[in-house]
Write a structure and sequence with these properties.
The protein is of the alpha/beta class. Helix content is 22%, strand content 26%. Helix 6 runs antiparallel to helix 7 (348-356) and helix 6 (332-344) crosses helix 10.
C-alpha cells in the first residue's frame, strides 16, 4: 500500500455581497513531499442562466486507487457578520416594501422568480505534469460535512442555487492527482435571513419553499419540507409532454429530496395533460387532487372536499418533502399555501406578500391583493376565532379535517428559533 502524504493546503475565502466584497489575504504552507495551494472564494452572482454540469461519478477502479491523506489546512475565515444575498435587487425591493405595490417590480409576464446563485470558486496550482480532471464541491448544513449537496465541476468555479435562507453552510473542495486524494479545509458562511426562499428549477415557473416565514418572535415555518411550483408538464396534451428539464428533475429529486407530488389541476377536462404518475421519477408518490378555479366564485368553498383530502396527505410524515402545484402555481396553489401557512401562524401581511410574489413568475398576467380579497378571504375571516390561525383551523375542522391531522402538520412544520 502506498504511503499517505501529509499535505498543507492554504485556502483564501472571499465573500461578495451585492456590489461589495471583503478580501482577506491568504496564508500558505508546504509539505516536504509536494507543494500545492488551493485558493477558494465564495460570493453571489447576478447570472440567472447558469446551469450546473451533469453529475459524474468515478469508476470503481479509480475510487479504489484514491488514497486519503492526513491534511492540515491554514484557513482565514469569513467574518461572521457577512451574509450571502439570495434575492435580486427587484425582489429585495418588493420584500422590503408594501406588498400591494408589487406591480412596481413585476407583472407576471416573465420568469423573474429565481434566486441568485451562490458562486463558489477556487484555484489549484500544480506543476504541468499533474492533471486534474475535475473537482468535487461539497456544501452541507452540518459542520462535520455530513449529508452534503455534492457537485462535480470541470472548472474552478460553480454556481449553486436553492440554498436555505438564514442558514449556516459549510463547504470544501476535493480533487485528486493521480491516485492521491486532496481535500481543502472546511469553510463556512451564512445566507441572509430574509423570506422568501425562492427556488430555481429548470423548466418550471414560479417555484418557492413555503417555509422560512417567521411565526411570532421565536418560531418559524421549517424549510425544505413543502414547496409550491407551477406545472411540470404541458396541459391538455393527449401524450404527456414534460416541461421540466433533466436538470430540473435532478434538482427536485436528488437535492430537494422530493417524495410526493400533489397535482391540483383538473382531470375531467385533461388539464393534467394525460399525466398518471409524477414526471419527476417513478419513486415519487403522485396524487391527483383536482381543484377548480373560476373567477367570481369562491375558490375555498368550491374546493372544500378536496382541501380536506389534501390536509390528510399533509399530516402524513412519510409524504415529505413534498410539493404541490396547479397550472401556473398561483391561484389554487396560492389558496392552499394561504391555508397552510395561515394555520401555522404566519402573519396576514406575509401571507399576502407570498401570494403576490407570483408576479415575479411567468404566470401569463398580473395578480393583485383584490383577487383574493374578493374571493376566499371573507370566508376565512367570518369564521370563529381570535386570530387568523384560529379562524383557519376552525374552518378546516368544519370541513372534516381532524384535530389530530392539524396537530401533526403543526408538529412537522413549526420549529423554534
Amino acid at each position: 500500500m502506498k504511503k499517505n502524504k501529509l499535505l498543507i493546503i492554504s485556502l483564501l475565502a472571499l465573500l461578495s455581497v451585492c456590489s461589495c466584497s471583503n478580501n482577506n489575504n491568504n496564508t500558505s504552507g508546504t509539505s516536504s513531499l509536494e507543494e500545492i495551494s488551493i485558493y477558494s472564494s465564495l460570493g453571489t452572482s447576478g447570472s440567472l442562466d447558469s446551469t450546473p454540469l451533469p453529475e459524474k461519478t468515478l469508476d470503481e477502479e479509480k475510487v479504489n486507487q484514491i488514497i486519503s491523506g492526513e491534511f492540515e489546512v491554514l484557513l482565514q475565515s469569513i467574518k461572521t457578520e457577512d451574509e450571502v444575498v439570495l434575492h435580486t435587487e427587484k425582489q429585495k425591493s418588493y420584500l422590503h416594501g408594501y406588498y400591494n405595490e408589487v406591480l412596481k417590480y413585476a407583472h407576471g409576464d416573465g420568469e423573474y422568480s429565481r434566486p441568485l446563485p451562490v458562486t463558489f470558486s477556487w484555484e489549484c496550482n500544480v506543476s504541468e505534469d499533474n492533471v486534474i480532471n475535475y473537482y468535487t464541491l461539497n456544501v452541507s448544513e452540518n459542520s462535520d460535512m455530513s449529508s452534503p449537496w455534492t457537485f462535480i465541476s470541470e472548472t474552478t468555479s460553480y454556481d449553486v442555487y436553492n440554498l436555505k435562507i438564514g442558514t449556516t453552510y459549510y463547504w470544501n473542495v476535493e480533487t485528486y492527482i493521480g491516485d492521491l486524494h486532496f481535500t481543502s479545509e472546511t469553510n463556512s458562511f451564512k445566507t441572509e435571513d430574509e423570506s422568501i426562499r425562492n427556488i430555481f428549477i429548470e423548466g418550471v415557473a414560479n417555484c418557492r419553499d413555503i417555509g422560512g416565514w417567521k411565526i411570532g418572535t421565536n418560531q418559524r415555518v421549517k424549510q425544505g419540507l413543502i414547496y409550491r411550483t407551477g406545472r411540470l408538464n404541458k396541459n391538455y396534451m393527449n401524450l404527456v409532454s414534460r416541461q421540466i428539464t433533466l436538470e430540473g428533475r435532478n434538482m427536485m429529486v436528488n437535492y430537494l429530496g422530493i417524495q410526493t407530488e400533489i397535482d391540483l389541476r383538473r382531470t375531467d377536462n385533461n388539464e393534467v395533460g394525460s399525466l398518471t404518475s409524477s414526471p419527476l421519477d417513478t419513486s415519487v408518490n403522485y396524487y391527483q387532487c383536482p381543484m377548480v378555479y373560476e373567477s367570481n366564485k369562491n375558490t375555498l368553498v368550491n374546493n372544500s372536499p378536496m382541501i380536506r383530502e389534501i390536509f390528510k396527505l399533509l399530516s402524513n410524515e412519510d409524504n415529505y418533502p413534498l410539493f404541490y402545484h396547479c397550472s401556473i402555481g398561483t391561484d389554487r396553489t396560492g389558496l392552499l399555501t394561504y391555508l397552510i401557512n395561515g394555520l401555522l401562524g404566519v402573519s396576514e401581511d406575509d401571507l399576502n406578500r407570498d401570494y403576490l410574489f407570483s408576479n415575479f413568475g411567468s404566470i401569463g398576467g398580473s395578480r393583485e391583493y383584490s383577487d383574493i380579497e374578493e374571493d376566499y378571504i371573507p370566508t376565512i375571516k367570518e369564521q370563529e376565532g381570535n386570530s387568523l390561525s384560529q379562524k383557519i383551523e376552525n374552518y378546516l375542522l368544519k370541513i372534516g379535517v381532524t384535530s389530530e391531522e392539524i396537530s401533526s402538520i403543526k408538529t412537522l412544520m413549526i420549529e423554534t428559533i
